[in-house]
Amino acid sequence: MLTTHPFESDADGDTLREECGVFGVAGSDAASALVALGLHALQHRGQEAAGITSFHHGQFHTHRAMGHVAGSFDRDDVIRSLPGTVAAGHVRYSTTGETALRNVQPLYAELQSGGFAIAHNGNISNAMKLRRDLVRRGSIFQSTSDTETIIHLVATSSYRTLLDRFIDALKQVEGAYSLIVMTPEGMIACRDPLGIRPLVMGRLGDAVIFASETVALDVVGATFERAIDPGELVIVQDGQIRSIRPFAQRFPRPCIFEWVYFSRPDSIEGDRSVYDVRKNIGAQLAIESPVEADLVIPVPDSGVPAALGFAQQSGIPFELGIIRSHYVGRTFIQPGDQVRHLGVKLKHNANRALIKGKRIVLVDDSIVRGTTSLKIVQMMRDAGAAEVHMRIASPPTRHSCFYGVDTPERAKLLAAKLDLGGMTDFIHADSLAFVSIDGLYKALGEARRADIRPSHCDACFTGDYPTTLTDQDESADVDQFAMLAERVS
Ligand code: SF4
Questions:
Q1: Does the structural domain 272-462 have CATH classification 3.40.50.2020?
Q2: pTM over 0.70
Q3: CATH homologous superfamily of domain 17-254?
Q4: Which cofactors does this gene product need (predicted)?
């Protein structure tokens, strides 16, 4: 599973990308080495930068670097520079804040109460407003990251204890946050009241482990204990664990796209396997949108489980019709405008002998701008496919995400611009179908009831955002004001 779509080039931006992954260890002599391993397992959640902070004998130690975890954190000297039994780390793909080392997390500040390090998966949807207010009151920001807003809210809170200040800060932010915080007293892991982004807890001997996904627990040999509940803070201090729920209880709305694409298929959410759910989605797609065809071919790697489900349900043979080279780095697929189109073939190639003369069902996880699908369909046609039918394991993506997933602005989403016929023409497929929103819930073993709030955030499909979007609404007002001013002038 990749969060950078394998066919994507930066020029296209034709992908949804998870912003971040977090991992924390409290109570192990090998804390920072374990965090490095955990981050490696979460690399798919952010490939732009990584950082680890540890705490030892009253001192915080941090190493942050651009690029992948391997290369920065597979060196003994780096791990030795991060001593202590408590450490937290972060992998990042930025949606908020420019690409710069100062934005790489964990972010760290010296507060009145001592050091404070924070790693954040999600996005604060009123960060710009809070930041403006804080700057007006004298705060000086060091980064352009939305996460730094939390630090300033903690620093300026009028409450006495650090925990109360932290809770006070969280009560002012809206949006999505799964956080791991380190203080001289210990570690706090918490999830926003809607539980939009995932966070789980595990144990490795006496150590407590927090991670964005269970796959990271597996990699370090930890046992999965439970998910952190929406709105829950888990505090690890002096080897003791306690849990508090300081927010008004709300109906949870975890991100449904974690099931479709973001999480690794070998992760478990709740008691369900991501892999199984993806296969169910493929099977549901075959029930809803059957097609006469000779082969089911996944778009690698993220389309594989859904394609397997489609093949098993339909009885159409599953074949690897697109072969992915594992030896081509991301940078190599973007060598320049004149030859950029060749990059696709460097990384992926049609299995020509298999495809020639066949009616193909191509299964992919989503369509964003549509440029990726267009290339893949063309690749199948160039390889001699008699027909190319595209099946998508999510409903049409018609709305942007403001909760920590990088999506193009709405006007650039193919499904926001075109109806099904228009999209089919755009990607040059013989047919195109998406799993229905009801079918997606069915694949999860649930029903989406129109008369009650859905059990997940599905806003990128439905536009039903589970929180207010203060920054978004304000910038829409500014845009409207600018348009009016333009008309008047
Ligand atoms: S808008 Fe879409 S991607 Fe974003 S949290 Fe909601 S379901 Fe997930």
A1: yes
A2: yes
A3: Aminohydrolase, N-terminal nucleophile (Ntn) domain (3.60.20.10)
A4: [4Fe-4S] cluster; Mg(2+)
